[in-house]
């Protein structure tokens, strides 16, 4: 059975556009997934990346064209300039980490619900009420947003260190336990083929 470490930031439009395809791929191949939300600003600082606000206008223009192309191709509702972006991704990430440790709900649904709130529903995912609603919608106790904050913060930091050690430099990023790496939602088909070749 294969295992996938899924590194991402809840603020990533590309992670949002991944939708639930990772979960479908994992189910199809009997693979397990560990969700590893992280601080992408720190990841970029450690691995030579550039935050969108610091990129050349030509790169940002192309980024916008790609977001529009992909959201249309995937038939996913998307606000390309959301009202609450960027925001503090840590509280939502802590909730994901805590939910993963507790279990009992739809973790993939929680992750997608949080990103959908940002990129399609004009909600601030740093807002406690938004996080609690996403937890509830995914079958978790809303109170998880108020618990495990220290453990969540510690895991959030470890995820960054794990990412750097694993050669991760962007979001979304998928690392298979055999060392294969896939960067970007547009590489999910390649991940699917890779896992298919292993089984």
Write up this protein.
The protein has a 4-stranded mixed β-sheet. Strand 3 and strand 4 form a beta hairpin. The chain has 9 helices and 4 strands. It starts with a strand and ends with a helix. It is of the alpha+beta class. It has a single domain, classed as Glutaredoxin (3-Layer(aba) Sandwich).
Mean pLDDT: 97
Tell me the CATH architecture: 3-Layer(aba) Sandwich
Q: Measured on Cα atoms, how large is the radius of gyration?
A: 16 Å
Give the CA-CA distance, first to last residue: 8 Å
CATH topology: Glutaredoxin
Beta-strand percentage range = 5-15%
Largest sheet: 4 strands, mixed
Sum up the overall morphology in one term: globular
Tally of strands: 4
| Helical segment count | 9
CATH superfamily: Glutaredoxin
Name the structural class.
alpha+beta
In N-to-C order, the SSE pattern is EHHEHHHHHHEEH
